[in-house]
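thread: overnight batch results

M.L. [08:02]
morning all. the overnight job finished for the chain we discussed friday. pasting input first so we're all looking at the same thing
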Amino acid sequence: MKKTFLNYCFHLTIFLSFLFVISCKGISKTTTSVNNIRGYQLAWSDEFNGNAVDTASWNFEVGGEGWGNHEQEYYQADNATVSDGKLVITGRKEDVGSNHYTSSRMTTQGKHEFMYGRVEARIKMPVAQGFWPAFWMLGSNIKTVGWPASGETDIMEHINADSLIYGTLHWDNNGHVQSGDTIASTPSAYHVYAVEWDAASIRWYIDKTKFHEVNIYNNINSTDEFHQPFFILLNFALGGDWPGQTIDDSKLPAKMYVDYVRVYKKK
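M.L. [08:03]
and the structure it wrote out:
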């Protein structure tokens, strides 16, 4: 009888431990993240918990004219899917018109636009020659003032097969100027890429490590572009002026995974 009771207690402990693990896995991504970012409150997010891209939040940009960088892909909505709580942007070797590759490019333009705050995404990327995934922002007035007068904030870019993550600011100061830096990382693993942006500066982070900062206080160096609303972009380019036009077809199809995109405002 005593042995049976002890056996019962052992199995009950195992069962309760199992329930605890399951319940922890069920805690929403939003709740855990908000609690971990001191001084900020969530303003908007897409956790990609549905079965398809939410077109109330995202636009698909479509076409294959090089996108100003002589890229080789044709962007289309079909290459962006949602499954297992992740956005998946797939680069493929396939012909559409004169383009020999396809991928997706998504924006929140006209749907979710922001000025100041913390903008972050948890992403893992494919790594190969000719690959160019990016998480970035453009000024909401780009259609009226053009680029670079709109300003551009590249929160994260990665090219080819090296370990470097790029964070860069682009703007107009009597012509295009930029300020950027890099940090070594493991792009094929998940990391949180973020900028914290206020009236004084823009600061770049990977996970909890800051690796770049630009002073924008009082529009110094003609940085008035960064005191206006911006929208978010996610895309996976193939080829282009920066990574080069050689693409490793043996690594295609390739997938860029986005666990979530979140925007926080200062409390």
